[in-house]
Amino acid sequence: MAENEPMSAPTSTLQSAPVPAADGTPGRGSYWITTFGCQMNKADSERMAGILETMGYTPGSDEHSADLVLYNTCTIRDNAEQKVYSYLGRQAQRKRLNPHLTLVVAGCVAQQEGEALLRRVPELDLVMGPQHANRLDTLLAQVESGQQVVATGENHILEDITTARRDSQVCAWVNVIYGCNERCTYCVVPAVRGREQSRLPEAIRQEMEGLAERGFREITLLGQNIDAYGRDLPGITPEGRRAHTFTDLLRHVHDIKGLERIRFATSHPRYFTERLIDACADLPKVCEHFHIPFQSGDDDVLRSMARGYTVDRYRRIIDRIRQRMPDASISADVIVAFPGETEAQYRRTLALIEEIGFDLVNTAAYSPRPNTPAATWPDQLDEAVKVARLQELNALVERIARQRSARYLGRSEEVLVEAVNPKDPSQLMGRTRTNRLTFFPARRADGSLVAAGDLVAVRIEEVRPFSLSGSLA
Ligand code: SAH
Ligand code: SF4
Ligand code: F3S
After folding, report:
1. Quick one: which ligand is closest to 40's CA?
2. Which CATH class is domain 168-287?
């Protein structure tokens, strides 16, 4: 999940100056992609951008002049969904003046709404669910033959043969499992992302090797519940356990040359095993940061959410992580004002945040979603309660994050240099192994410059709740 960003805001845009097609042909014009939602969507957008560039599209310089505009959408909460409609309204207007504009809605709203989206915005050319991202070229070919296309059927996700156009030159995402087989009572994801589909370990390793060869230093492995990886793949080991687990996968990809850091998200407490924790502690490239949503600090709420674990099980996971990796950072997602949540139950969520001492928590007030059980329950809470609980929660999350940040003061931290700080070009930015964003000047004491992709030691001189600053040690 994007850190500290409301999920309704676009979480990234792909942009750069237009360039001619590689073979010198005039190409098909320019494209623009706006991405809403989670890392899964960002990874899909990078692959779709790669497909568009292979087809001869060039990156456009803005949303309002591009020849093809693609919104990769999110429907996790109502405000995320509504945002898309306001963006689409403006593009529909533009299309009425310029019929050559190609308008695409991809991602989770596309999957949820399907045909209904065409009725609501008839100017659309293509509505495509997340399982169809790797087929963008085929779908656009159908659009070019003059049809409006809706691709939202259940689909086996093809291995992508195009090279993704990655936002970063240093850090990359690699999908390892698509979809979700859980049935949390509040959540649209299983409906929009479909059943779990694990990629084969060899395909994952091959993609990672290719990235390392091209200079990427850090890879984040992605899945809705990444620790459920492999349960849909066949095979049992002689010891009688699943042949493919996420722990096995980590060990399988760990020795890739040139790769310095491995991260993964999101973990589900139900599948987070001691074996996995031990592997993370043993494997030096696996960073000491774990994103394990707990959703609520109350067992009855967890039961009505159908999460399949108790607060105590969650605690034991964190204890075990801290036994093996004392400095590990822990982040999570939490929902407040779930239907029927009492004041006392809500207080248990606050207490758990205080007790665990999270480095970061993505917070949300419950939002009723179409075709989910909880949305039909009678005991929905008032908007005023949602706003009040969320506000208090956010203040607590910030206070705890500030306490957690304080431990870095005066320490020397390993930082992977990612890019120039867009808000202050005299600085570079990167992350600690524990995933704290860190800013520092580009020049060492001896006058030499560091570059993106370098691993440097930064002495931390200033701490803020969600970021750090320092100088090169
Ligand atoms: N698979 C991950 C989470 C994916 S969705 C997991 O189970 O932990 C990302 C986050 O959005 C969730 O962790 C949850 O906190 C939030 N979320 C999902 N549905 C929501 C809803 N209806 N209202 C508010 N927040 C929601
Ligand atoms: Fe949604 Fe639950 Fe699946 Fe996470 S595990 S994506 S919250 S249904
Ligand atoms: Fe949103 Fe879809 Fe991700 S609903 S959070 S973009 S899986």
Report:
1. 3
2. alpha beta
